[in-house]
Amino acid sequence: SIVILRLGHRPVRDKRITTHVGLTARAFGAEGMLLASDDPKLADNISDVSKRWGGDFYVRNNVNWKAEIRKWKEQGGKVCHLSMYGVNLPDAVSEISKAEKLMIVVGAEKVPFEIYELADWNVAVGNQPHSEVAAVAVTLDRIAVADPLKNEFSGGELTILPTECGKRVVDNRQQEQGSIE
Ligand code: SAM
Protein backbone atom coordinates (compact mmCIF):
# COMPACT_ATOMS: atom_id res chain seq x y z
CA SER A 1 0.00 0.00 0.00
CA ILE A 2 1.13 3.51 -0.80
CA VAL A 3 0.08 6.71 0.95
CA ILE A 4 1.08 10.29 0.23
CA LEU A 5 1.93 12.67 3.07
CA ARG A 6 1.40 16.26 1.95
CA LEU A 7 3.31 18.79 4.06
CA GLY A 8 3.18 22.57 4.15
CA HIS A 9 -0.17 23.02 2.39
CA ARG A 10 -1.42 26.62 2.72
CA PRO A 11 -5.21 26.52 2.26
CA VAL A 12 -5.59 29.49 -0.09
CA ARG A 13 -2.32 29.45 -1.98
CA ASP A 14 -1.91 25.71 -2.44
CA LYS A 15 -5.53 24.73 -2.93
CA ARG A 16 -5.15 23.79 -6.57
CA ILE A 17 -1.77 22.13 -6.39
CA THR A 18 -2.63 20.03 -3.33
CA THR A 19 -5.86 18.95 -5.02
CA HIS A 20 -3.74 17.91 -7.99
CA VAL A 21 -1.32 16.01 -5.74
CA GLY A 22 -4.33 14.09 -4.36
CA LEU A 23 -5.95 13.43 -7.72
CA THR A 24 -2.66 12.35 -9.26
CA ALA A 25 -1.89 10.07 -6.32
CA ARG A 26 -5.35 8.52 -6.69
CA ALA A 27 -5.09 8.12 -10.45
CA PHE A 28 -1.63 6.53 -10.22
CA GLY A 29 -2.51 3.98 -7.55
CA ALA A 30 -1.97 5.41 -4.06
CA GLU A 31 -4.59 4.42 -1.51
CA GLY A 32 -4.87 7.79 0.20
CA MET A 33 -3.38 11.13 1.13
CA LEU A 34 -2.61 12.48 4.58
CA LEU A 35 -2.86 16.25 4.72
CA ALA A 36 -0.72 17.87 7.41
CA SER A 37 -2.85 21.05 7.40
CA ASP A 38 -6.45 21.88 8.14
CA ASP A 39 -8.43 22.19 4.92
CA PRO A 40 -11.54 19.99 5.18
CA LYS A 41 -12.98 21.41 1.96
CA LEU A 42 -10.06 20.06 -0.01
CA ALA A 43 -10.61 16.59 1.43
CA ASP A 44 -14.31 16.84 0.54
CA ASN A 45 -13.51 17.85 -3.05
CA ILE A 46 -11.26 14.85 -3.57
CA SER A 47 -13.84 12.53 -1.95
CA ASP A 48 -16.41 13.88 -4.42
CA VAL A 49 -14.12 12.90 -7.28
CA SER A 50 -13.79 9.38 -5.88
CA LYS A 51 -17.54 9.08 -5.52
CA ARG A 52 -18.00 10.18 -9.11
CA TRP A 53 -15.17 8.26 -10.72
CA GLY A 54 -14.78 5.25 -8.41
CA GLY A 55 -12.24 3.61 -6.15
CA ASP A 56 -11.81 4.23 -2.46
CA PHE A 57 -9.07 6.83 -2.27
CA TYR A 58 -9.25 8.74 1.00
CA VAL A 59 -7.91 12.03 2.35
CA ARG A 60 -7.24 12.44 6.06
CA ASN A 61 -7.35 16.08 7.00
CA ASN A 62 -5.14 17.85 9.53
CA VAL A 63 -2.86 14.98 10.55
CA ASN A 64 0.14 15.39 12.82
CA TRP A 65 2.94 14.48 10.40
CA LYS A 66 5.45 13.42 13.03
CA ALA A 67 2.97 11.08 14.69
CA GLU A 68 1.92 9.64 11.31
CA ILE A 69 5.51 8.93 10.29
CA ARG A 70 6.23 7.34 13.66
CA LYS A 71 3.11 5.16 13.47
CA TRP A 72 3.87 4.18 9.86
CA LYS A 73 7.40 3.09 10.78
CA GLU A 74 6.18 1.17 13.84
CA GLN A 75 3.92 -0.78 11.47
CA GLY A 76 6.94 -1.69 9.35
CA GLY A 77 6.26 0.94 6.68
CA LYS A 78 8.99 2.80 4.80
CA VAL A 79 9.16 6.52 4.15
CA CYS A 80 10.35 8.11 0.91
CA HIS A 81 10.75 11.88 0.95
CA LEU A 82 10.77 13.53 -2.48
CA SER A 83 12.97 16.57 -2.97
CA MET A 84 15.27 17.67 -5.74
CA TYR A 85 18.27 17.21 -3.40
CA GLY A 86 17.96 13.47 -2.90
CA VAL A 87 19.35 10.38 -4.57
CA ASN A 88 18.11 10.35 -8.13
CA LEU A 89 15.10 8.05 -8.55
CA PRO A 90 16.67 5.72 -11.16
CA ASP A 91 19.37 4.92 -8.59
CA ALA A 92 16.89 4.23 -5.78
CA VAL A 93 13.92 2.70 -7.54
CA SER A 94 14.82 -0.98 -7.11
CA GLU A 95 15.21 -0.51 -3.35
CA ILE A 96 12.01 1.54 -2.92
CA SER A 97 9.94 -0.85 -5.00
CA LYS A 98 10.59 -3.58 -2.42
CA ALA A 99 8.65 -1.71 0.28
CA GLU A 100 5.26 -3.27 0.94
CA LYS A 101 4.06 -0.20 2.80
CA LEU A 102 5.36 3.04 1.40
CA MET A 103 4.71 6.61 2.53
CA ILE A 104 5.70 9.21 -0.07
CA VAL A 105 6.29 12.66 1.44
CA VAL A 106 6.03 15.85 -0.61
CA GLY A 107 6.34 19.45 0.49
CA ALA A 108 5.01 22.80 -0.65
CA GLU A 109 7.42 25.39 0.67
CA LYS A 110 10.55 24.32 2.52
CA VAL A 111 10.00 21.12 4.54
CA PRO A 112 11.34 20.78 8.13
CA PHE A 113 14.86 19.34 8.08
CA GLU A 114 13.74 16.56 10.40
CA ILE A 115 11.95 14.99 7.43
CA TYR A 116 15.29 14.35 5.74
CA GLU A 117 16.42 12.49 8.86
CA LEU A 118 13.19 10.55 9.41
CA ALA A 119 12.92 9.37 5.82
CA ASP A 120 14.31 5.97 4.84
CA TRP A 121 15.08 7.48 1.45
CA ASN A 122 15.47 11.05 0.26
CA VAL A 123 14.81 10.79 -3.44
CA ALA A 124 14.90 13.22 -6.34
CA VAL A 125 12.87 12.84 -9.49
CA GLY A 126 15.78 14.29 -11.39
CA ASN A 127 17.96 16.78 -9.52
CA GLN A 128 16.21 19.84 -10.93
CA PRO A 129 13.39 21.88 -9.38
CA HIS A 130 9.89 21.13 -10.66
CA SER A 131 6.61 20.21 -9.05
CA GLU A 132 5.24 17.92 -6.35
CA VAL A 133 2.55 16.80 -8.80
CA ALA A 134 5.11 15.67 -11.36
CA ALA A 135 7.28 14.13 -8.64
CA VAL A 136 4.37 12.02 -7.33
CA ALA A 137 3.30 10.92 -10.81
CA VAL A 138 6.72 9.86 -12.00
CA THR A 139 7.56 8.10 -8.73
CA LEU A 140 4.31 6.12 -8.66
CA ASP A 141 4.81 5.19 -12.29
CA ARG A 142 8.44 4.09 -11.86
CA ILE A 143 7.91 2.01 -8.72
CA ALA A 144 4.76 0.26 -9.97
CA VAL A 145 4.75 -3.44 -10.76
CA ALA A 146 1.61 -3.28 -12.88
CA ASP A 147 1.04 -0.32 -15.18
CA PRO A 148 -0.83 2.27 -13.07
CA LEU A 149 -2.46 3.69 -16.19
CA LYS A 150 -4.38 0.44 -16.43
CA ASN A 151 -5.83 0.77 -12.93
CA GLU A 152 -9.54 0.23 -12.70
CA PHE A 153 -11.73 2.19 -10.34
CA SER A 154 -14.91 0.42 -9.38
CA GLY A 155 -18.07 1.69 -7.78
CA GLY A 156 -18.08 5.15 -9.36
CA GLU A 157 -21.06 6.93 -10.83
CA LEU A 158 -19.31 7.47 -14.16
CA THR A 159 -16.94 5.45 -16.33
CA ILE A 160 -15.13 6.76 -19.37
CA LEU A 161 -15.06 4.69 -22.52
CA PRO A 162 -11.86 5.70 -24.29
CA THR A 163 -12.55 7.04 -27.73
CA GLU A 164 -10.52 8.48 -30.56
CA CYS A 165 -12.61 11.60 -30.81
CA GLY A 166 -15.14 13.14 -28.43
CA LYS A 167 -16.29 11.96 -25.03
CA ARG A 168 -18.02 8.71 -24.18
CA VAL A 169 -19.10 8.31 -20.60
CA VAL A 170 -21.26 5.63 -19.05
CA ASP A 171 -23.54 6.79 -16.28
CA ASN A 172 -23.51 3.75 -14.02
CA ARG A 173 -26.55 5.00 -12.15
CA GLN A 174 -28.72 4.83 -15.24
CA GLN A 175 -26.92 2.03 -17.07
CA GLU A 176 -27.22 4.25 -20.08
CA GLN A 177 -24.48 5.50 -22.28
CA GLY A 178 -24.37 9.18 -22.95
CA SER A 179 -21.97 11.97 -23.39
CA ILE A 180 -21.24 14.85 -21.09
CA GLU A 181 -19.70 18.08 -22.12
N1 SAM B 1 11.63 25.39 -2.37
C1 SAM B 1 11.30 24.20 -1.69
C2 SAM B 1 12.53 23.60 -1.01
O1 SAM B 1 13.61 24.13 -1.16
O2 SAM B 1 12.40 22.57 -0.33
C3 SAM B 1 10.65 23.17 -2.63
C4 SAM B 1 9.49 23.66 -3.45
S1 SAM B 1 8.83 22.44 -4.57
C5 SAM B 1 7.79 23.35 -5.64
C6 SAM B 1 7.62 21.58 -3.63
C7 SAM B 1 7.82 20.09 -3.55
O3 SAM B 1 7.93 19.55 -4.84
C8 SAM B 1 9.05 19.66 -2.82
O4 SAM B 1 8.89 19.66 -1.42
C9 SAM B 1 9.23 18.24 -3.37
O5 SAM B 1 8.44 17.31 -2.63
C10 SAM B 1 8.68 18.36 -4.79
N2 SAM B 1 9.75 18.42 -5.81
C11 SAM B 1 10.09 19.49 -6.57
N3 SAM B 1 11.09 19.17 -7.40
C12 SAM B 1 11.40 17.88 -7.16
C13 SAM B 1 12.35 16.97 -7.70
N4 SAM B 1 13.20 17.32 -8.64
N5 SAM B 1 12.37 15.73 -7.20
C14 SAM B 1 11.51 15.34 -6.24
N6 SAM B 1 10.60 16.15 -5.69
C15 SAM B 1 10.53 17.39 -6.15
Automatic annotation (TrEMBL):
Coiled coil: none annotated. It holds the Pfam family Trm56. Its main location: cytoplasm. It comes from the Archaea. It is an enzyme of class 2 (transferase). Its EC number is 2.1.1.206. SUPFAM superfamilies: alpha/beta knot (SSF75217). It is found in: Cytoplasm. It catalyses: cytidine(56) in tRNA + S-adenosyl-L-methionine = 2'-O-methylcytidine(56) in tRNA + S-adenosyl-L-homocysteine + H(+). NCBIfam families: PRK03958.1 (NF003048). Specifically catalyzes the AdoMet-dependent 2'-O-ribose methylation of cytidine at position 56 in tRNAs. Belongs to the aTrm56 family. This is tRNA (cytidine(56)-2'-O)-methyltransferase. It comes from Methanolobus zinderi.
